[in-house]
Amino acid sequence: MKFLPSKEQFEIIKQGVEEIIPESALIKKLENSKKLNRPLIIKLGCDPSRPDLHLGHSIVLKKLRQFQDLGHIAVLVIGDFTAMIGDPSGRNKTRPQLTIEEARENAKTYVEQSHKILDVKNLKTLYNSTWLDKMSFSDVVKLSSIYTVARMMERDDFTKRFQSKIPISIHEFLYPLAQAQDSFYLKSDVELGGTDQKFNLLVGRDIQKHKNQNPQCVITMPLLEGIDGVEKMSKSYGNHIGFYDKPEDMYGKVLSIKDDMILKWFQFCTDSDVSTLNKIETDLKDRKINPMKIKRKLARKIVETFHNKEKSRDAENHFNKVVVEKGIPADIPTYKLVREDLIVNVIFDSGILKSKSEVRRMIKQGAVRIDSVLVKDISQIIKPKKDCILKIGKRRFLKII
């Protein structure tokens, strides 16, 4: 493999990162890599607590892909074992523990979805149960003896919980140690993660150093706010855009973000180069240019990344007809109503929404209409007398026959 000069690699790697710890060590690793013609081992740990990936995950995945393109070894570590502990990062309470079966089931879709960004041919996917499950209780005691409770309590989320008298289970201290053991087992040169993972990644450095292994460098990536512009993107907050969202839903959600988020989303959710980003920044300051025009370009690019150009065009046409022209798309799903039923049951049974509580919430928010008439009562009944069109939210339709 012919590597780029180490300085060129470093300039590429540092783009868009929050922090590199330490920079000097990474430069030295890149220099040695080129000199010895040996690729670096780049580790990204994945927590399969949920099966769905969203744009927030794409930021760190894109950085891993960057390392792949530079000729280094990308290792995707699926934390099926650590999911049984539960990552305490950013939590104000103990995270629910998964069974190994649940974690592996979630991991299947996680790996599949990550392939939308990563180069599958040059990717190692490993499950940390492979080595962690083989550790004896004696091994765990030895690992735990390396780190003190005082060091663990330096962690911000633990400190806040302790001061608020919110319980912290002993097993939660094992999570960063287990993640660090992953780094030792893999002999990783670099570990990637979001800024909320900084403590865990640094523990990896400490454990490697304690075990006389060349410590990994840590690269943290910014967290992406969701479409609400407030909380970090998360399925639990309902502010996410999933990798597998329908093109029209993805397009419409992108257009709903605040104008001051446009540049950041271009930077982290697309493959735009520096000159393109500079042009976008200039256009956003130009009062003659409507930000919606720039946002539409962003929406097209994101849909194209996770689907294709044709689906991107179709999604924009769908938005123009349904939202701008307030029309009804031609290819909406149908539901055959055999007997009268509650509107909540009809929408849920059709599969448009995934839970009855979500249907009720949409109705209470004034987001459901029957033939353009607002539905105000969650107890409203639909009778099988004539065909009608339900509109759920801004972009979803259902024809009742």
Q: What's this model, at a glance?
A:
The chain is of the alpha/beta class and 401 residues long. The chain is built from 17 helices and 13 strands. It has helices spanning 6-13, 23-36, 55-69, 100-114, 129-132, 137-144, 149-152, 156-163, 170-186, 198-210, 247-255, 262-269, 274-285, 291-306, 309-324, 343-350, 356-364, and strands at 19-21, 41-46, 73-78, 123-127, 190-194, 217-221, 334-335, 341-342, 368-370, 373-374, 381-382, 388-392, 396-400.
What features would you describe in this structure?
There is one protein chain. The protein is α/β, with parallel strands linked by helices. The protein has three domains: 216 residues, Rossmann fold (3-Layer(aba) Sandwich), CATH 3.40.50.620; 80 residues, Orthogonal Bundle (Tyrosyl-Transfer RNA Synthetase), CATH 1.10.240; 67 residues, Structural Genomics Hypothetical 15.5 Kd Protein In mrcA-pckA Intergenic Region, Chain A (Roll). 46% of the residues lie in helices and 13% in strands. It contains 17 helices and 13 strands. It has a six-stranded mixed β-sheet, sandwiched between helices. β2, α3 and β3 form a beta-alpha-beta unit. α9 packs across α10, α11 packs across α15 and α12 runs parallel beside α14. The termini are far apart. The mean pLDDT is 88.
